[in-house]
Amino acid sequence: MTAEADFGQFRAQFPTTETIAYFNSGSYGLLGNGVRAAMEAYLADRIAKGADWGAWVALEDAVRQRMATLLGAHMHEVAVTASASAGINAVASSVDFSARHKAVVSNYEFPTSAQIWHAQEKRGAEVVHVAEAEDRTIPLAHFDAAIDQDTAIVALSHVCYRHGGKLPAGQIREIARIAHERGALVILDCYQSIGTEPIDVRALGVDFCVGGMLKYLLGSAGSGFLWVRDALTSALAPSTSGWFAQADTNAMDIFAHDPSPSARRFQGGTPPVPSLYAAKAGLDLILDLGVDAIEGRVRMLTRLALDRLAQADIAVATPDDDALRGPMIAIPARDDDALVTGLIAQNIVTSSRDGNIRAGFHAYNDKADVERLVEALARSGQCFGRRELVG
Ligand SMILES: Cc1ncc(COP(=O)(O)O)c(C=O)c1O
Known about the structure:
This protein is of the alpha/beta class. It has two domains: 112 residues, Aspartate Aminotransferase, domain 1 (Alpha-Beta Complex); 250 residues, Type I PLP-dependent aspartate aminotransferase-like (Major domain) (Aspartate Aminotransferase, domain 2). Helices cover 39% and strands 14% of the residues. The protein has a seven-stranded mixed sheet with strand order 2-8-7-6-5-3-4, with helices on both faces. 47% of the residues are buried. Pyridoxal-5'-phosphate (PLP) binds next to α4.
């Protein structure tokens, strides 16, 4: 396979790349031609048919199937949601805090995850935060110390949305082992990695995995997923529910609640139909190119970016070790918002968080994008030298 030629073809499906060096896939992936066509097909179907519920329910299952493939899971273990938050909320609603009252939450969670667990305080939860060490990693020992016999759930992020640091698979497995040994469940947020590397939920040993389709999965806002380990589903009864969470969505029974035996019990109401058109098309782009190929491409690009930033004496906040980072590199800036604005004026799109600018790399980026970014950063006067005191 001529990988470069294939990636060139892939890039050509994203017209934005013609003018913009786009590094904001960790916020919202670029719109591919296939995804645009799918969204237009939704509008055409609406005009032509009015409503096409049969096709829409089949579409939801097509998205479920593709997500299962990406996660190394069964279709019946996947709930299709409208956001990652919806999935986490459904899981939280199924946790009985009277039996075990602690939610152990890493300090590298996206706010939504921490906030949802804090929202359970009125249901008796106590949130225990797991802090990072000086080297910005969260050592296994910190999780080991926080998880005890009172822990109901442990919330982890695969790749931290702030600086791109990654919990390696071995550490996730070990945290899950410790949690299970002590009777706790583990929920993994893989939103900042899914689509850029293979994720095998079973091999990771976690109980839930959550994310959404609008970033590296190239879909649109309004789509998310929740994977639930099948052996667990029947033991969990989310108190968030709805007709699409019932065993029979056509039951129309107002006198009973009969949750689906599958992970669909973690869903609620009408599926996010327009977003599912985009989600399926985005997932097809990812699956057609192949996650292994994307992982190689993204690793090559982030490696190149780190090496070029080092040559330009620009400090980064992301681990240099290929095994300890996801698709995003964070670069501390004197004024991160001003830097993002300055880059946009040069058709280079990044985002800012926590005093860093974030550059997320996808398979549609190329080496020329990396050069544009590094040169613009070097010119900006906003970055810190590698020996300067940062943060
Ligand atoms: C790691 C991570 N988790 C969760 C979310 C929030 O997802 P949603 O808005 O679909 O609930 C984001 C969004 O940026 C994220 O990066």
